[in-house]
Each structure stands twice: as C-alpha cells, then as structure tokens.
Design brief:
This protein is an all-alpha fold and 95 residues long. It has one domain (3-94). It contains 6 helices and no strands. The radius of gyration is 23 Å and the shape is elongated. The structure holds zinc ion (ZN). The site of zinc ion (ZN) has 6 residues, from helix 4 and helix 6.
Length: 95
C-alpha cells in the first residue's frame, strides 16, 4: 500500500514533524540578534555614556524602580536596572 514498514523512516518522519512544530532555532536566534542590534542602535542614538553615567549605584537604581516596574523606562536604562538587580540583592528586594 505504498506505506513502507520501515521503523527508521517512521522515526525520521516523527523527528521532522517534531522539528516543524518547534519554533526553529535559527529564527529565534535571528530575532535575538535583531533585538540586540536595535538596542545597540538605540544606545548609540541616546548617547550610552550619559545613560550609564547618570546611574550610579543603588540610590539611582531605586529611584528608577517605579518606572522600571511599570515598563516606562527607555530600553537602555531598563537594561541597566535589570543588570543591577541581577547582581544586587538589596535592590532586588526593593523591586
Ligand atoms: Zn543595588
């Protein structure tokens, strides 16, 4: 009936179907790269030096937390805050 009774072929078919179901990695990676590229462009456009210089230590981070929580921070600042929160337990508790 045209159907090959070949376990290996069946497996290949199953694997292919499985692969097609999953978001494929290259697409995900490309999307990730696009995001980083955009962040880089944004950072350049908004003078990254002044952004990082305007945030020193915990006090500044905490001042930004309410905005960060409500998602109002510009991407570059939000990244700095997120970065700090990853490293700083005290601020993470405040967030
Ligand atoms: Zn801190």
């Amino acid at each position: 009936m045209g159907y090959e009774n070949n376990p290996k072929k069946e497996l290949e078919r199953a694997v292919t179907a499985l692969r097609e179901d999953q978001p494929d990695q290259e697409t995900m990676q490309a999307a990730g790269q696009r995001v980083w590229q955009r962040l880089g462009e944004e950072a350049q456009a908004s003078k990254p030096v002044s952004v990082s210089e305007s945030i020193h230590g915990c006090e500044d981070i905490r001042a930004l937390l309410p905005e960060h929580r409500s998602g109002k921070l510009p991407t570059a600042k939000a990244l700095l805050v997120a970065d700090h929160l990853r490293e700083c337990v005290a601020c993470r508790k405040e967030s």
